[in-house]
Amino acid sequence: MKEQYDENLNGLEPEILEKESVEMNHPVTEDIETDYIDTEDFDEEEFESDDYETKDDDDDFLPDDLADFIDNETPSFTRLSDKYADIMSSATTMLVVGVLGIAFLILVWCKVIPLPLSSSTMWLFDSVMGGIFVIFVIAGILSFMRAKQVKIDAQAEDELIARIQDWSADAFTKEELDRELDLTQPVEILYFSRSEKIKDALMHEFEEANEALIAEMAEDIYQRLYEE
Asked: Were 117 and a residue from 122, 176, 195, 201 both cysteine, which residue would form a disulfide, CB within 3.0 to 4.6 Å?
């Protein structure tokens, strides 16, 4: 048996013998697939899960009625009379700066006010500064023209506000607003409930008023009734 094995070995190529020797001394092990848990992914998922649960807990903290009121966004209100004053101030500033700047350039051209500049630099200076001051004058004139229209609209708005104030003085009372309300509710919910009743009445009576004005007047009426 041994002699036959030796004969077989002698008949093999040297490369094959070397390969078989390596495989016999270092047997190839099959890859074993193992299930493992990625601790980083697990921690991250657990962290996100905790955040989600915390967010849900915060949402549940507020009453449903109060959360509905908070989600409603009301546009900010700026009186047109205040806007008119701002436009007039800006228009006056731009016009004065433009006129004074042009007057300064005229004095420079007439060499009343000398500047230590070369002829080429002086030409560039006069062109750039002259263009800027002309733009200021034009912008000031356009702002004055716009202010005229804003003034007309502001007068109409002031008249509407005066009408709302006169009407609301007799239309709203604490007893009327608190009727059918559960006064044991939190102050925040009562505030929103009363404000909604005021807004609904104002929108029904003054259909020409926009939402921002209605919200502003409702706030003023609430403060007059409950905070003074």
From this structure: 122
Dig out the tokens for 201 from the structure: 């009445």
Instruction: Tally the C-alpha atoms within 13 A of residue 194's C-alpha that lie toward its C-beta.
Output: 26
Contact 143, 90 (CB under 8 A): yes
Q: How far apart are CA 83 and CA 78, in angstroms?
A: 7
Distance CA 167, CA 163 (A): 6
pTM of the model: 0.59
C-alpha to C-alpha distances, 186 to 14, 84, 180, nearest whole angstrom: 95, 41, 15
Whole-number Å distance between alpha carbons of 182 and 178: 8
* Residues 98, 103, 104, 109, CA torsion sign: positive
Residue with tokens 């205040």: 82
Per-residue three-class SS string for the chain: CHHHHHHHHHHCCHHHHHHHHHHHHCCCCCCCCCCCCCHHHHHHHHHHHHHHHHHHHHHHHCCHHHHHHHHCCCCCCCCHHHHHHHHHHHHHHHHHHHHHHHHHHHHHHCCCCCCCCCHHHHHHHHHHHHHHHHHHHHHHHHHHHHHHHHHHHHHHHHHHHHHHHHHHHHHCCHHHHHCCCCCCCCHHHHHHHHHHHHHHHHHHHCCCCCHHHHHHHHHHHHHHHHCC
Q: Which residue has the higher pLDDT, 143 or 39?
A: 143
**pLDDT tens for each residue of 91-134:** 999 999 999 999 999 998 888 888 887 877 888 888 899 999 99
